[in-house]
Amino acid sequence: MIPLLILAPLILLAAVGAVWKARPVHAALFLALALSFTAVLYLALGADFIGLVQFMVYVGAVAVLIVFSLLIIHRGDESEEAARRRRALPLGLLCALPVPVVILAAVSRGAPTTVEGAPVLSVRQLGTLLFTTHAPAVIAVVVLLTAVMVGAALLAREPQPDRRP
Question: How many domains in the chain?
Fold first, then answer.
């Protein structure tokens, strides 16, 4: 319970920083921080496999991919984005309001934390399944992330002036 009480506010502050920052690189770094704190929470609660996967996949791959993408396609002035965010804050808060309501309703009803009859897999069995039976899906995700990165770089690059004589 103590790790949750310590890490939950840190995760929340980092997530708010990711949403609030107008500079995309700063927002991406706050997102990486929130994902890192979430992984630390998993590790502190004894979910070692999920914590390590969180670090490797989300912090090590996705967040770094986002930061590198932003560094490649950096546009410069964020003043227009900052002004737009101030105008959109009330609507964003209104749209986010149902989330805590649903969470509080689920907690107050005592929602089940496990599904009865679900198979229990060890970490070794899960790793074997992931890298043997489901290896094509893992490769497809890697190819998809690479295609997204290349597509984002191509879409965001500045048009070159035509140099024909």
Answer: 2
